[in-house]
Structures are given as structure tokens and as C-alpha cells.
Amino acid sequence: MNVLVTGGSGFIGSHVVDKLIAAGHRVRVLDLKEPHRADVEFIQGDITVRDDINRATEQIEVVYHIAAFSNIDKVRDNPLTTIERNILGTAYLLEDCVQRKVKRFIFASSVYVYDQGGHLYTTAKQASEMLCKDYNALYGLPYTILRYGTAYGPRSRRADVISVFIERALNGQSLTIYGSGNQARHFIYVEDLAEGNVAALQEVARNQTYNLEGSRPITVKEIAQAVKKLVADVPIEYGKARPQDYGGTVIPPEGVSKELGWQPRVDLEEGIRRYVDWYRSLGMGK
Description:
- Strands 3-2-1-4-5-6-11 form a seven-stranded parallel beta sheet, with helices on both faces. A two-stranded parallel ribbon has the order 7-10. A two-stranded parallel sheet has the order 8-13.
- It has helices at about 10-20, 50-55, 70-75, 80-100, 120-140, 160-170, 190-200, 220-230, 255-260, 270-280, and strands at about 1-5, 25-30, 40-45, 60-65, 105-110, 145-150, 150, 175-180, 185, 190, 210, 220, 235-240.
- The chain is α/β, with parallel strands linked by helices.
- Helix 4 (about 80-100) runs parallel beside helix 5 (about 120-140), helix 6 packs parallel to helix 8 (about 220-230) and helix 6 (about 160-170) packs across helix 10.
């Protein structure tokens, strides 16, 4: 199958590319930077530029739309850029996919859509999900919405709490927990997440919405203790709670494993070990 992955050079997108190729699909990447592997077709472009989108979708059967402005701090500081990239970018792609008669539009959403705290990232994901459903209802474009949990692992932006704690521990630095440390999320190892994306190509996933999360909630305190145990015996400190932290109390819906034949396989300790091996392979850390 001919597949386009927007954001295919990024953290999650690059792993989705790997799994799609392993499954035998022909992959094209639309991104601002080059992909991590040479055996994919690459179109350097922007999801807010209509001509770039039009070039990227030619002869494509399925689109994975992963590209987005996702750094939470940058989202807060750049509201109009967030709206342009994360909402209008989705709309431009959907419009082009209708014209191209694309067989499926697979949208990378987030469990942040459940957050009621008020956040532009949340709003953008909610709006994009609504656009996917509207383009299906009005123009017959099939979709699948995948709400990602918090991913970690090799090639990460090194901004999530697991990556930050591991890198600090490898460099002999203390781990800082903001707040009580009891805030929890369904963290998911990135290769598990990528496999869930490929599973969503199945016909049963047409016009459906799934959460792709870890199998259980993991607290920040638990992560710190695991890193201290597995990586280095560094001090754990506590700081003032950050009001915009997402609590991550969502329970994954029934039916994901049953319908897609998918479930996360890598637990926290194994994921930490794999991340450490990758990080050290880059010659970083003590």
C-alpha cells in the first residue's frame, strides 16, 4: 500500500515509518527535515503549504497525519502558530485527501482531548478530530483517530519525564518531581505505539477512535524510583507543582486489543533499559 506519513522524520513518526516498512508498505514522508532512513521517499515540505501537500499526496492510498506543533511550552507561547499548524494543517490535508480519493485518513490525536483544564494543544486535537468526522460525514472520507498516550523511547525529543530522569541519572544529577509525584499517565513505549498505528490499517478500524496507551497508569514517583534503581542511585527532590501538568486519569476503552489484535508489550523497566542502551549508543551519559 502507498502510505504518506506527515511528520515521518520526528520521534513517533519515524517509528511508525519503521513499522510500516517492516509490514511491506511503500512509505513517503512529508516533513521539514530529512527522515532517519534512506529507503523512503522524502518530500521536504510544510503541512500549511497547499502545494507541498498536493505533491505529497499524489498516488497515496493512506495518510498518517502525525505532524503537529507538540511542545507544550511552545504551544502556550505561540497560540496562532499552534492554531495554524495543528488545526488548519489538518484541514488542508483532509481537503486534499478528498480530492485524491484517499482510502483512509489516520489522525494522530492525544489523550489530552480528555483534559478539561483548558489548553490550546487540547483544543487543537479536539478540533482536528471533529474535522475528521465532518469530512467523513460530508464527503465520505474514511478516518481513524488514534489518541496517543505519553510516548517515550529512542529518538525522543528528550523532554518527557522518563527521558529527562534517565538522562539526569546517567549524568549523576538529582531527579526533581514537581508536586506530590502521584500524578499518573499511561506511558507507552514508542515501538508499541508504532505497532498500534500499523494495526489501525485494518478494515475494522475504519471510522473508529482508539486510545493507544500503556496498559496501566504509572506515577511520576514510580518512574523516579525505577530510574534510581535501574540507572543510577541519585537523589530524588521535590519542587512546586506545575498547574498545566496533565493528570492522565483516562482509562483505555474496551475493545482496542480485541478489535485490532494489539496491546502494549514493553513494561516500564524494559523500556527504561532500552532507552538507556540507545542513549549510550550515541556516546552520551557517563
